[in-house]
Amino acid sequence: MSLFPELNAKFAERFSGKLTVNPVFREETTWAIDPSILVPLLTALRDEEDFDFLVDVSGVDNFGQEPRFEMVYELFSYKTLKNLRVKTWVSEDHLEVPTVSHLWRTADWHERETYDMMGIHFAGHPDLRRILMWDGYPYYPLRKDFPLEGKVSDLPDLAFSNVAPLEGGPFVTSPADLSADREPRARPTEI
Amino acid sequence: MATTELEIPDSLKRSAEAAEHSFDTVGEKMILNMGPSHPSTHGVLRIVLELDGEEILKATPDIGYLHRGDEKIAENMTWTQFIPYTDRLDYLAPLANNVAYTCAVEKLMGYELTPRAKVIRVICCELARISAHLLGIGAYTMDCGAVTVFLYTFTEREKIYNLIEVLTGARFTTSYTRVGGLARDLPPGFIQGVKDFIDQFPGRVDEIDNLLTRNRIFVDRTKDVGVISRADAISYGLTGPNLRGSGVEFDLRRHRPYLDYDQYDFEIPTGTVGDAYDRYLIRMEELRQSVKILRQALDRLPEGPINVEDPKNIMPKKHGVMTKMEELIQQFMIVTQGIDAPAGEVYFSAENPKGELGFYINSRGGGVPHRLKIRAPSFCNLSIVPHVMPGQMLSDVVAILGSLDFVMGECDR
After folding, report:
1. Do A108 and B383 count as a contact with CB atoms less than 8 A apart?
2. Which one of B121, B126, B255, B281 has the lowest number of neighbouring Cβ atoms within 10 Å?
3. Would the CB atoms of A56 and B358 count as touching at under 8 Å?
4. C-alpha closest to that of B401 among B87, B56, B118, B68
C-alpha cells in the first residue's frame, strides 16, 4: 500500500535500479536512493513536483554497519501538501555528498550542521564550516564513537575544555571509583 | 583599518579577508562585533557586522553559544527521560515543545490520544503561544524603544505563569506531557482561572494595540524594514509568523492538523509585504486567535481518561504499584528500560509559536532512540539574516532581529 502511487511509479521508473520505495510506516513515504542520483532526483522533485520546502536535513550514524552514514532529506510541498522523505547512504571511505544548497537555500545551514556534527563533506557547498562548535574543533560530536561526556580538545585558553563529570549522574551505568567510607553517589575527589 | 591577526580561523577573520576586496564604497569599512552578550540579540547570538558608515554591507551570524548537545543526550535517554530537555528548547513556550515531542513519539508508537488529553494539550499549546508571542512582541518593541509595552506584556505573562504553575508545578520547566497522555489531570480551579484570564486578555491586547499599531515612531521603525519576499521565505525554510508575514498562507494547525485542530474555528493572519511591521501585526492577531481557540477548547473539554490504554507502556497508578505485583513489575520495566517503541522512522512537526518544530525520530526499537533530530524553527529563521541585513541601516538590525523572533535555546539545541 503506498500513499502516492503515481509519484512512486514515475520516479521508480525514471531512476530504475537506484530508487527503492520503502514500505509505508505511519502514513509516511520514504525513498531510499543511491547517492549518485541525489541531485537529479531532488532537482526533479523541486521543479516538476512542486516540493518547494526542504523541511529538514539530518545525518544518521549507523556505527558498525556498512555504509556507515545516512543522509535524510524531508521534503514538503506547499501546493500539494505532500510529505516525502528521501534517504541516501554515505560510506565512511568516501564521506562526501553533493550539496543541495543551490536548490533550497535552507540546506546551507543544515548541511553545515551535519558537517559539524557528523563530518560528512558536502561537495559544492558555498561556505562549509562549523556552525555550532567553534572553528578548529577537532571532533565530530554526534558520531556514535564520540563519548557522551566529550573529549578534551587541545584548544588553549578556552574554558570548559575538560570532559563533563558524569559520576553519580543519570547516564552512569557503572559506578565511579570511590573509597569505601564515602557516600556511594558522591563524586570522587579530583586527583 | 586596524585588524588584529587571529590565529584561530574565525568568522571575524573571514569577514576581514572579504573586506580586503575593494568595494565601491565611500570611506572605510568597519567591522563591528554584536557580541554574544547583547541585550538586543535575544539570547546568545553573535553577529559580525561589516559596516560602511551606518549601512550594513555584510552580516554573519555566529551561533552555537547555547549548544548543549540535546541530540546526543537523546541517544542516551529513554523517551520519557528526554521530556525535560524539550522544555529547554524554546524556553519561552515549554508546554508547546513538550506537546510536540510527545506527539512525535506517539506517532512512532501508533497511539491515538484520548479526547480529553487532546483538548488539554490544545489548551497548553495555546497558552504557550500567547506567552511566547507576548514576550516576542514585548522584547521586540522594547528594542525599538517602546519600553512600556514590555512591562504590559510581562504583566500578562505573569498571569499565564501562575496558571501553568497550578497546572504543572513549575512556571517554566513544565515537563507536563507524557508519551500516551499527560502527567496529571487538570487541578480544580484551573479551568476557571483560564476563563478569567481570557475574559480580560483581549482588553490588554487592545491596550498594546493602541500604543503601537498606529504609532508614528513605531511604524517608521518597522515599515519596509527587513522585507522578505515569498520565494526567499520558502527557500530559506522560514516557518511560523515569519513565513505568513511574507504572504504564504500556511499553518500546520490548519493544513496538517494534529490534536484535532481541524475541529477548531480560527483564522490564519497572513501578511502582504513581508516587512517587520507585518510580522508584528501577525503576532498581535495570533494572540486574539489563540483566545478564540482557547474559548472553544474550554467549551468542548470532555470528561474521561487522560492516558492511552496501554498497560505495558503507561505508568500505573501509585496505589496499584504499592499493593499489586503486576503494577510493580510494570512500573519497574517502564522506568528502567523505557517505553518499548517499534523500529522505524517518523517525522512529526507542530506549529510552535516560533514556527515549525519538528522531530525526526529514527528508532531501532527499544526504549532509547537511535537518532533524534530536532528541526528547530529558530535555526532556519536565523539563516535568513545574512541575506536580509545587507543594505539596511544599523538601527534596523535590532528591528529585524526582534521581528524574526528567534530563541537561541531552540536554535543551538
Report:
1. yes
2. B255
3. yes
4. B56
Does the distance separating the beta carbons of B358 and A53 come in below 8 Å?
A: no
Res. A83: pLDDT tops 80: yes
Name which of B28, B63, B1 is nearest B385 in CA terms.
B63
B180-208 pLDDT, tens digit per residue, is 889 888 999 999 999 999 999 999 999 99
Q: Cell 498571569, residue?
A: B159
Query: What are the tens digits of pLDDT across the range B248-305?
Result: 899 999 988 988 899 999 999 999 988 899 999 999 999 999 999 999 999 999 998 8
pLDDT at site B337: 82
Closest Cβ opposite residue B9 in set A113, A135, A171: A135
Task: Please name every residue paired with A30 in a beta bridge, in sequence order, or none if there are none.
Answer: A85
| Alpha carbons B277 and B285: distance in angstroms, whole number | 12
Q: Which of A58, A52, A44 is nearest to A15 (CA)?
A: A44
Burial class (CB in 10 A: 0-12, 13-18, 19+), B153: buried
The backbone torsions φ and ψ at residue B51, rounded to the nearest 5 degrees and listed phi first, read -115, 145
> If 0-12 CB within 10 Å is exposed, 13-18 middle and 19+ buried, where does residue A8 land?
middle
Spell out which residues of chain B touch residue A135, defining contact as CB-CB under 8 Å: 8-11
| Each residue's pLDDT tens digit, A91-118 | 888 888 999 989 999 999 999 999 999 9
Question: Distance (Å) from the C-alpha of residue B106 to the closest C-alpha of chain A?
Answer: 10
Burial of residue A79, with CB atoms counted within 10 A of its CB: 0-12 exposed, 13-18 middle, 19 or more buried: exposed
Whole-number pLDDT of residue B27: 66
What domains are defined for chain B? 79-310+334-412 (1.10.645.10)
B271, B247 in Cβ contact below 8 A?
yes
Secondary structure (3-state) at B79: coil
Give the pLDDT confidence score for residue B353 in this predicted structure. 92
Cβ atoms of B221 and B207 within 8 Å: the answer is no
- pLDDT per residue over A179-191, tens digit each? 444 455 555 555 4
Q: Which domains does chain A have, with CATH numbers?
A: 5-123 (3.30.460.80)
Strand, helix or coil at A88?
A: strand
Give the count of Cβ contacts less than 8 A between chain A and B. 100
**Full-model pTM:** 0.87
> Of the candidates B110, B237, B412, which has its C-beta nearest A106's C-beta?
B237
Nearest CA in chain A to B112: A26
Q: Using DSSP, state whether B33 is helix, strand or coil.
A: strand
User: What count of other Cβ atoms lies within 10 Å of the Cβ of residue A46?
Assistant: 19
CB distance A121 to A130 below 8 Å: no
B107 to A30: CB separation less than 8 angstroms, yes or no: no
Backbone angles phi and psi of A10, in degrees to 5: -60, -45
List Cβ neighbours of A47 (8 Å cut-off, separation of 6 or more): none
